[in-house]
Protein 1
Amino acid sequence: MSEFTLQVKARGQAGKDLYTMRKQGSIPAVMYGHGTEPQMLWVQYMDFSKLYAKAGESSIVEIIPETGKKVNVIVQDVQVDPLSGRFSHTDFFQVRMDEKLEAHVPLEFVGEAPAVREMGGILLKPIEEILVSCLPKDLPHTLSVDLSSLKTFEDHIQIKDMKIPAGVEILIEMDTTVALVEAPRTEAEIAALDEKVEGDVTKVEGVEKEGVVAPDEAIDTEKKGGNKEEKKAPAVKA
């Protein structure tokens, strides 16, 4: 049994009562996968919000419908309304427990880098997640990155330095850097950067847009005959 479960209800025709159901605290969803017909569903907003905060898109979720058997899925393609910031739609991809799947697993950065704490460096995280392949039972919710090995500005952590759980295959290059510490900028470097930005702004303000004719030039062109009518050919007498 999965650690995460979610109650769902069947949804009728696409778009029917969509506004009403959202006002009542539900969001539309669709479940698909393994050649099955897509199923349109309703999910309680608060239930899904709590689930997504814990399960994300890298955990097996057990869908519990009103009728029929339970289904194992992973959450995919969650849509958020740009104005309200609320979830507006989600997909559920049906998985088979005896078949490998691919998923993006987020990185969890733990500990503190000595190069940050003692030397004032800046922690950089080039990537935030890793694509993996595994059986659903082996799918990790997160992959841990221990920052304590970053003692100097020359140190870096690559995927091959991480502890990868058994049964999990990494689908990107093992020498991919996941964390490093950059030396803090000196006051001279910051001042030089500010001067460069100011200089670039000045150049942009002084550049004329190509292909744009000033109003006075356009009027002058018309006076010189720029908009003259075409001469008609003389009529030919029969």
Protein 2
Amino acid sequence: MPFLFFTVPAFTQLIFSLVAITVRFFRGVINPDWNSISLHCCWSSGHLSGIPVIFVPGNAGSVRQVRSLGSLLQNKTESRKEPFHFNVFGIDFNEELSGIAGMYLERQIRYLRFVVDQVWQIYHPSPKGLILVGHSMGGIVIRSLLRDPNFNPSRIALIITLGTPHKSPRKNALIIIEQFYSDNNLTKNLKGSHVPMISISGGLKDILVPEHLSVDTDFYHFSTTAIDGVEAEADHLCIVWCNQLVRKVSITIAIYQVTVYFLIFLKKRLELKIA
């Protein structure tokens, strides 16, 4: 499996890497000023052509949690001989404890915005949109990004969160996390957002993020107990790699892309008939 590694200044305590589930391989270096990123491509075209999926891990989460989703998406498109393929990227936050320190969340939000900008630039032509998948506090990082006035939300096509406390932090959360929710207006609705958003909770087995915290009016909410084909509830870590659940997530992403691809194809056919 090819890896895409990025390095950042030591004082940030972040090692950012991307895992590209594709036959291509490239590596990059982030300049110390955080203002630019240099990609050294190892294929002739120098650009990616698949559908970008970015995985954002949560509290103490590992970038390798994306492997289950990435492998299923690749197998699904190859076995069905779909006219498209996915490029799955995973952000490595060095397993930071973002669930107990708001300062980690703040810089992870800025970094995710930076990543989206850079991933967008390596596609020519530009993709129709990026698909973001977040686990735990990674979902909060994604949600907060949509509220960033410096971010262009039209670049996001679909958001899926797994075990994310959208409604509020846990009752025993530190004051600094509660303050983060308040400062970023996370308890208020995302008015006018065009992005379809799905929240999946693990059920009773997820004792870290109870199900009621994952329910939010901005998201279509599903519990593992209500998803056909998922025979068991998932705890807070299992929700990322449970094969039955990840298969459903991969199907959702694939169906969404098939729909988009079909609409684009239909539009082109209509344009040809009109011409």
Protein 3
Amino acid sequence: MRALNSRNVQGRLLHSALEQSKVFGALRSELLKDLVEICDVVSLNKGEYLFREGDVSSGFYIVHHGAIRLHKVSPEGSKQILKIFRRRESFGESTVVSLSCYPADACADCPTILARVDKMGIQKLGRKSEAIRQCLSSSLVRHLDHLVSKLEARAFFSPESRLAQWILDEGIGEVVNGPSSFEIGCPKRSVADELEIASETFSRKLRNLRERGYIRVSGSRIEILDSEGLRVIATKEH
């Protein structure tokens, strides 16, 4: 793990990461400038750990580029992927609100650049700004919604339905002109693990959706061609 040293480069990158993030993107520019002052940039190589379960929290993180895999390790050594965080997404907010330690391991699935939001700094800004408090609260609600949705999907929906819903979720907010598209941003095997689908099944279902005209796949980019059709598939139970 390494920090970028150039102050100007770091400042521009941090402002971009904060402005584009789901957690702080709606804030006015003055608050974004205040946030830049309490952040720093962290760069990780593929497979490098950002933190381990039980490490004392120094803040939370926003993915600017790449992907972070959050997982738990069982006493037997098996890994359970909780979520893969990609560009614009944040994680670890609960540790600046109530928890003192990180509740899981965080590892880079590919070369990754993040903005670290300092714990004491964000607590101080949060006491002064209701807007920042609302941003953090909304982000925590999103994380809880994701956890509930994941439990429901595992219990009630088929692998194809889970894959269709994941594609729709990833495509939200990425539309500029024309069809929605997005970069997977991490190995497809990791996505399969996150969705609790065997790698072979994941590849087969993805190919099937492509052949039926719901999506177009080009390398690591997925383009949604038929969002309504995907929604129908996503709602099919076992």
